[in-house]
Amino acid sequence: MPVIRVEMFRRTQEQKRDLARELTEAFVRTCGGNKDAIKILITEVDKTNWASGGVITAEKQN
Amino acid sequence: MPVIRVEMFRRTQEQKRDLARELTEAFVRTCGGNKDAIKILITEVDKTNWASGGVITAEKQN
Amino acid sequence: MPVIRVEMFRRTQEQKRDLARELTEAFVRTCGGNKDAIKILITEVDKTNWASGGVITAEKQN
Amino acid sequence: MPVIRVEMFRRTQEQKRDLARELTEAFVRTCGGNKDAIKILITEVDKTNWASGGVITAEKQN
Amino acid sequence: MPVIRVEMFRRTQEQKRDLARELTEAFVRTCGGNKDAIKILITEVDKTNWASGGVITAEKQN
Amino acid sequence: MPVIRVEMFRRTQEQKRDLARELTEAFVRTCGGNKDAIKILITEVDKTNWASGGVITAEKQN
C-alpha cells in the first residue's frame, strides 16, 4: 500500500522509468509514508481499445 | 467521468466499435450527462487467463 | 464473462437499474453471447475522490 | 486518457488535493500530453480490507 | 507483487481474515514466491451496485 | 460474484490452472457460496510495467 495504477497509451521505457520515479516521489511528498511500500502498475492501452464520446480513438479523424 | 471498463474475450474491431457507441448511448439515455465525458476501456482477456468454478476457460470440456 | 464496471458519480437506484439493463442489452446486441453471463459492477465515486486537470472535482469553481 | 487510480489508506482532503495536483504534474513532466485529459480516481481503503503476508492490516501487531 | 483483489458481497471480519490467509497460502503453494510480497485488497459491494442478466441483485426475486 | 483478480508476473499454464482451482476452493472454504459463481481473472504483468520504491522491476539490480 499504496498501489498506483496508470492506464495510458504506449510510452517508451525511458518515459515509464521517469514516470514511476516521479509518481512515487509525488506520493511521498504529499501523503508521506515509506517509499518502498509504493507499488506502481502501468497498463499500456491500444488505441483500438479506448473510446471517448462513443468513438474508438484509433478511428477518430481530426 | 464516467469510466466504463469492459473485460471480455476477443472481439472484432467492428464489434468493439459498435459496443463503444452503444454503451455510451445507453449511459447518456439512463444517467444523463455529456457524451464526450464518457470514457470506455476495453480489455480483451485470453481464455487461458479466465476461470469460473475453479477451471480455466481454455481447459473446459463441453 | 464479460464483466462491465462503471465508475461514476452518485445516481438514484432507478437510474442504476435502468443503466444495468441497458448496458446489458447493448452488449448482447453488439457482441452477442448469453445475457445471464454479463456481470455489471457499479462504483459510485465521491466528488472529493475524483480529479481532472489536477483539480479535485468537489473543489472546482465554475 | 490517461487514468491514474490510487488505492491507499485514508488521507485528509488537503492531502488528496495536493496528491491529485502533483501526480498530474508528474505525468505531464515525464510523459507529456494535455493536463486536462488526465483523470485521477482515489480509492480510500479500510485497514480491515487490506492484507499483506496473509494478515489483515487492522489486525497486525507490531 | 502479486496483488489479489476480491470483489464480493459483505462478509464478517472473521471471514475476511480467513480469506486473506487462505488466498495467500494458495498463491504460495501454486505459484511460489515470498508470502510477504502478496497483497490482498477486498472490496465489499452492495447488492444495489451489482447486476447479472441485466437485473440489479437487490431487486431480484426468487 | 465474487470476482477474484490476480495481477502477477508470468507463470506457466499449469501454475495458472492450479492457482485458479486453489483460490476458488479457498474462497468457498472461508466465505461459502456456490463454486460456479466464482470468477477469476489473471493479468500477467511485464517487469517493465511494474515498479516498487520508484524503480521499474526490470531495471532493478540485485
> What would CATH call the homologous superfamily of chain A?
Macrophage Migration Inhibitory Factor
CATH architecture of chain A: 2-Layer Sandwich
Strand content of chain A: 25-35%
Global shape of chain A? elongated
Please give the domain count of chain A.
1
CATH domain class of chain A? Alpha Beta
**Quaternary status:** homohexamer
Task: Please specify the SSE layout and strand pairing.
The structure is a homohexamer.
Chain A (H helix, E strand, L loop, with lengths): L2 E6 L4 H19 L7 E6 L5 E3 L2 E2 L6
Parallel strand pairs in A: 1-2
Antiparallel strand pairs in A: 3-4
Commentary on this structure:
The structure is a homohexamer of 62-residue chains. The model of chain A has no long low-confidence stretch (mean pLDDT 96). Chain A is built from one helix and four strands, in the order βαβββ. Helix content of chain A is 31%, strand content 27%. Chain A has a two-stranded parallel sheet. The first copy, chain A, has a two-stranded antiparallel ribbon with strand order 3-4. Chain A is elongated, with a radius of gyration of 15 Å. Chain A has one helix spanning 13-31; strands spanning 3-8, 39-44, 50-52, 55-56. The first copy, chain A, has a single domain (3-53), classed as 2-Layer Sandwich (Macrophage Migration Inhibitory Factor), CATH 3.30.429. With 62 residues, chain A is α+β, with helices and mostly antiparallel strands. The N and C termini of chain A lie far apart (41 Å). At the A-D interface, strand 1 and helix 1 of A face strand 1 and helix 1 of D.
